Amino acid sequence: MKDRNYIAGLGDMVGSAVTLYGWVSKARASGKIAFLTLRDGSGTCQCVLEKGDATAAFFDEAKKLAQETSVRIVGTVRADERAAGGVELHDITEFECIGGSGDYPITPKAHGIDFLMNRRHLWFRSQRQWRILRIRATIVDAIRSFYNDRGFVLIDTPIFAPAIGEGASTLFEVDYFGEDIFLAQTGQLYVEAACMAHDKVYCFGPTFRAEKSKTRRHLTEFWMVEPEIAFADLDEVLELAEDFVCHIVDRVVAKHRDDLESLGRNVADLELVKKPFARITYTDARDILHGSAARELLEKDLGDKTERVKALGSKIEELEAGRASAKKAWQIEKAAQEIQAAREERSELEEQIVNIPNHIKLASEFEWGTDLGGVDETIISRLHDGPVFVTHYPKEVKAFYMREDRADGRLVENFDLLAPEGYGEVIGGSMREEDFDILLRKIKAHNLPVENFEWYLDLRRYGSVPHGGFGLGVERTVAWMCGLKHIREAAAYPRMMGKVYP
RNA sequence: UCCCCGAUAGCUCAAUUGGUAGAGCGAGCGGCUGUUAACCGCUAGGUCGUAGGUUCGAAUCCUACUCGGGGAGCCA
Question: CA-CA 20 to 30 A from A445: which of A123, A134, A161, A338?
């Protein structure tokens, strides 16, 4: 559109006449004045229409606009502290309805998650979702620029892949002209080959996991970036991961402070993310889980949460009494909403309280040689301030391609990065086994068909070098940056078990 | 795959513990010159998820199923 102004730029245009195109996200009208909140993709701005000669031609139409009507509107920018955002549009001289609307399902009231998820295509017009997806775009851009600026070459790895990598049970099977193949759950092996051509490479794209998980941390389709570097040791890979995560955090904080605050994200917690991150080994982690600090943490949790449930109980009683004695309808409604919120919080806490003794048991009985579970990771993460690297896991619980620790044959040179505040594993990575004989032995030990891995073994036949890399999950990172309770808000069209619409 | 919770109006939830289905919001109409999810009045709107069972009587109790939410396992 020619002569179009964007809301994001209105701060510098006070006093000027501007033309806005956008959608009406909220409309309130009195007899002689109407307030339209306009959303144009760059931001939101309130437009004030007063009934008068200048607006006579369209005032009656404008005051009845349904939510999400698309319009063109011409007026003058005015600074006004009563308006959210500091400026508003007044002295409206032209108004045109471009696309009508009506019965828009997502009202300014509360909605359930099932309702919203079934209308995801509309839901992401809402302020909160709009901010999250913009932050995601920044994160994706930060990922690309980080590697591109450091001389990494982008390699696109295949999405159709034969069964390589870890257990085939978590892969989506596809009929490929009569042949059974799978949607890729990682591009890692492919990117390793490219690493031997370009030295520093990364792949970035969607990956697929058929795990039957219905939790706040899982999607069946998610984006992952996987860098791989040659002639490197574990410390160098860890340092890359550290710099990378810091770069993302810096970019998000620099560009989205307002958005983060609006989302309720504590920005100070993000600003604490500085290198070097804590580094512990798997064996250290085992000791932490068996130690008194872990036990005390959980016991304190139990005490705190029990207290909170009691407090909520009396709060609910008070609110119910208040609701019974309230006279105004809105007072009754307000009390009802507070009661509902308190009940929800209480039932969530009650479930956690039931689980805590089990967590204490799991932690104290953790055995060397098993993988760390989500509960274990949360405990370790909470006993540290920032992100934590956990390195050197037992080789039995890790993938065949991970490099054996030459100092202790029971271990592999791998790592996970646990994000703080319970966001869990955002990175998993390792050195890759570069020795032909060891790799071949491990392929056989994992009962994998050697013939499928001939190409991968070639990388060790022709100029093998120490190399390593990692994968970072975009949605988990977005959830962490934004402080989201559930990963489903971190993708425009999240794919989960039993959820593929829209 | 396992455990817990839920399903009542377009939406979010009530229904005094088995006795004639309610409120707010949203929608429609009217009023109000400054609203920000909280103004006032009126109107329309429900086979209480599905199928059985218990009972004089079921939204409420029982069984099965479907769908959804949360968690475990597993993972990024």
Answer: A161
Rounded CA–C1' distance between A380 and B12, in angstroms: 38
Please report the pLDDT score of residue A346 as a whole number.
79
- Is A7-99's fold the same as A116-277+386-490's? no
Q: What is the dihedral of CA A349, A219, A493, A44, to 10 degrees?
A: 40
Enumerate residues 6+ apart whose C-beta is below 8 A from A254: none
Distance of C1' in B25 from CA in A93, Å = 33
Nearest to A227 by CA among A134, A139, A157: A157
Does nucleic acid strand B have an atom less than 7 angstroms from the CB of A424?
Answer: yes
pLDDT digits (tens, 9 = 90+) for A95-111: 998 988 878 888 877 78
Q: Specify whether the CB–CB gap between A183 and A174 falls below 8 A.
A: yes
CATH class of A7-99: mainly beta
Q: Which of residues 464-483 of A have CB within 7 Å of strand B?
A: 471-473, 475-476
Q: Can you tell me the ipTM of this complex?
A: 0.89
Highest mean pLDDT among A100-104, A155-159, A184-188, A316-320: A155-159
pLDDT, one tens digit per residue, over A300-337 is: 888 888 888 888 777 777 777 766 666 666 666 677 77
A337 strand B contact, CB < 7 Å: yes
Give the domain ranges of chain A: 7-99, 116-277+386-490, 294-364
